[in-house]
Design brief:
The structure holds 2 protein chains of 2 kinds. By secondary structure, chain A is mostly beta strands. Chain A has strands spanning 4-5, 10-14, 19-21, 24-25, 32-39, 46-52, 60-61, 64-69, 74-79, 88-96, 104-105, 109-114. Chain A is built from no helices and 12 strands. In chain A, the strands form 3 sheets. In chain A, strands 2, 5, 6, 10, 11 and 12 form a 6-stranded mixed β-sheet that branches. A 4-stranded antiparallel β-sheet of chain A has the order 3-9-8-7, with no helix packed on it. In chain A, a hairpin with a 7-residue loop joins strand 10 and strand 11. Chain B has strands at residues 4-7, 10-13, 19-25, 31-37, 43-49, 56-57, 64-68, 74-78, 87-94, 103-104, 108-112. In chain B, strand 4 and strand 5 form a beta hairpin. Chain B starts with a strand and ends with a strand. The chains are: A mainly beta, B mainly beta. Chain A binds chain B through residues 4, 9, 33, 35, 37, 42-47, 50, 52, 91, 93, 95, 100-108, and chain B through 31, 33, 40-45, 48, 50, 56, 58-59, 88, 90, 92, 94, 100-107, 109.
């Protein structure tokens, strides 16, 4: 069974609009972490944001925020005021307790920002 | 400001050839990782090294070997390349107990024909 599901293979969004990238996860652990990474066309993986399972507040980093709904097991990434440079692949990942940082990755969402 | 450096960036191999992907990090990180990324899929862990002197299999270790040469360097070897190993390979590193950021290299594009 998929542990990380990203249901949107691709999205087109108008520049300056907000965008939400979906991520649902499956785990029986009580302690886990959720990550979002950005992969531009150049290929490098860029860390965006992290949410711990015990964090009460949703994580925010600049224009990025993570909409964490624990009961629904979802960890959607919200990008406010999208920019052309946001066009990239976005990956959701999860680290389970005692996994020695073995991240489990979703298949990614390709986001294209239209001018 | 090098971070994680991988070489080579691009390589074409014939089936049965061997090669080694090199990875070095200059951040004094404890743990290092090798992932592969195939089209339409997330990263899959091949091998990891929790600390200098240790290596462990990840999700897809078959056909690969690794060496943690020292704290800085973690190499991935394909002994007899197969077309199924055509992929993009990412090395990554992390400093244990310092937070949750894992740093990636820029990727190595490998084609086996």
């Amino acid at each position: 069974a998929q542990k990380i599901t990203q249901t949107q293979p691709g999205m087109f969004v108008q520049e300056k609009e907000a965008v939400t990238l979906d991520c649902t996860y499956d785990t029986s652990d009580q302690s886990y972490g959720l990550f979002w990474y950005k992969q531009p066309s150049s290929g490098e993986m860029i860390f965006l944001i992290y949410q711990g399972s015990y964090d009460e507040q949703n994580a925010t980093e600049g224009r990025y925020s993570l909409n964490f709904q624990k009961a629904r097991k979802s960890a959607n990434l919200v990008i406010s005021a999208s920019q052309l440079g946001d066009s990239a692949m976005y990956f959701c990942a999860m680290r389970e307790m005692d996994s020695n940082y073995q991240l489990i990755w979703g298949a990614g969402t390709k986001l294209i920002i239209k001018p | 400001n090098a971070g994680v450096t991988q070489t080579p960036k691009f390589q074409v191999l014939k089936t049965g050839q061997s090669m080694t992907l090199q990875c070095a990090q200059d951040m004094n990180h404890n743990s290092m990782y090798w992932y592969r990324q195939d089209p339409g899929m997330g990263l899959r862990l091949i091998y990891y090294s929790a600390s200098e002197g240790t290596t462990d299999k990840g999700e897809v270790p078959n056909g690969y070997n690794v060496s943690r040469l020292n704290k800085r360097e973690f190499s991935l070897r394909l002994e007899s390349a197969a077309p199924s190993q055509t992929s993009v390979y990412f090395c990554a590193s992390r400093l244990i107990f310092s937070g949750n950021t894992i740093y990636f290299g820029e990727g190595s594009w490998l084609t086996v024909v």
